[in-house]
What does this fold into?
Amino acid sequence: MGRVAIHLVTRRPIDVAVSKDLAADKLPLVYGHEIGHVIDQLAGEIGTKGIKKELKSVYDTLNNPNSPDAKP
It folds into this structure.
């Protein structure tokens, strides 16, 4: 539902886009997710070694309303 365009040479973000079909209540989550990618690129692609399990849990919580960790 969103994407970050990355310059092929500099690897810097050059554009953030979200789908025009995105529901208004989903916009903050999708835009926030894409801004996370912008931060990752500006920081030099932050490593995930040792934290993949935690990242998966956060992703699942945000994207699966039936997740045991999801907030009502």
Observations:
- The helical segments are 27-42, 52-63.
- Residues 2-47 form one domain.
- The two ends are 22 Å apart (CA to CA).
